[in-house]
Write a structure and sequence with these properties.
By secondary structure, the chain is an alpha+beta fold. It contains five helices and two strands; from the N terminus they run αααββαα.
């Protein structure tokens, strides 16, 4: 999975460089909007009931946490539990920023 991530970042960055689509500079509004969108999307993936099918191989359901969210525990080692949502956030931040670059914004 990490290999796929690194390869996709390399390919997207190379494509953006080749087509001269990388922005010269991000504005503060762009950075704030990207941060908010990344937080919201990572929260949906990590906690929302509807995306449970994506998390099913990696977590065990505990109970409903209200407001369409669920409480789950990872099936892997304890040290990885706190990094689960954080890693999703970083992955999404990278992907959303690359998507923004590809659009030329």
């Amino acid at each position: 999975m990490l290999g796929f991530y690194v390869a996709s970042v390399a390919v997207l960055t190379g494509a953006a460089l080749e087509h001269d689509r990388l922005p010269k500079r991000f504005s503060m509004l762009d950075l704030a909007l990207l941060g908010i969108a990344t937080h919201k999307l990572s929260r949906i993936i990590a906690k929302d009931r509807i995306t449970g099918i994506l998390r099913a191989p990696f977590v065990n359901y505990i109970r409903s946490a209200g407001a369409g969210e669920v409480e789950e525990e990872p099936t892997f080692h304890l040290a990885h539990q706190s990094l689960f949502s954080f890693c999703i956030s970083l992955l999404l931040l990278n992907k959303t920023s690359r998507a923004s670059d590809a659009r030329g914004n």
